[in-house]
Automatic annotation (TrEMBL):
It holds the Pfam family ExbD. It is found in: Cell inner membrane; Cell membrane. InterPro entries: ExbD (IPR003400), Tol-Pal_TolR (IPR014168). It comes from Pseudofulvimonas gallinarii. Part of the Tol-Pal system, which plays a role in outer membrane invagination during cell division and is important for maintaining outer membrane integrity. This is Tol-Pal system protein TolR.
Length: 145
């Protein structure tokens, strides 16, 4: 009879095994789906009649013509043909003296993209913090008013 009076003591432990199982299943699901989220999608960008930027200072313009020749326009100075090393030197000095001046790159539509990209690399070497790309407005019959 003594054994009948002795009751088992209650355990005050939390059983975490189900939580670990759920966590592992969620981890596996996320490991499988995460690479799928980074896949690229082929898109065709819309044409836009975006408004031009309003800037206080005359921008620095770097232009790449159809043959890949570089041209530089600093502020109100006339456009001049320039070689890559001189471009880096002049733009770096000009941007150091005028840190808020906008720097824009324009490329002829028939020039190879790699040559426009090279102009961007040269501006990076000149330590230009921000560079914008110039474009022509979209030609459409139904332009917004």
């Amino acid at each position: 009879m003594a054994s009948r009076r002795k009751r088992r003591a209650l355990k005050a432990e939390i059983n975490v095994v189900p939580y670990i199982d759920v966590t592992l299943v969620l981890l596996i699901i996320f490991m499988i789906t995460a690479p799928m989220l980074n896949l690229g999608v082929d898109i065709e960008l819309p044409k836009s009649n975006a408004r031009s930027l309003n800037v206080d200072a005359e921008p620095v313009l770097v232009t790449v013509d159809q043959e890949g020749q570089l041209f530089l326009t600093l502020g109100k100075d006339p456009r001049e043909s320039i070689d890559p090393e001189t471009l880096v030197t002049k733009v770096a000095a000009f941007v150091r003296n005028n840190p808020d001046v906008p720097v824009l790159v324009g490329g002829d539509g028939r020039v190879d993209y790699g040559q426009v990209y090279q102009a961007l690399v040269l501006l990076q070497q000149a330590e230009v913090p921000k560079v914008g790309l110039m474009s022509q407005p979209a030609e459409s019959a139904a332009a917004p008013r």
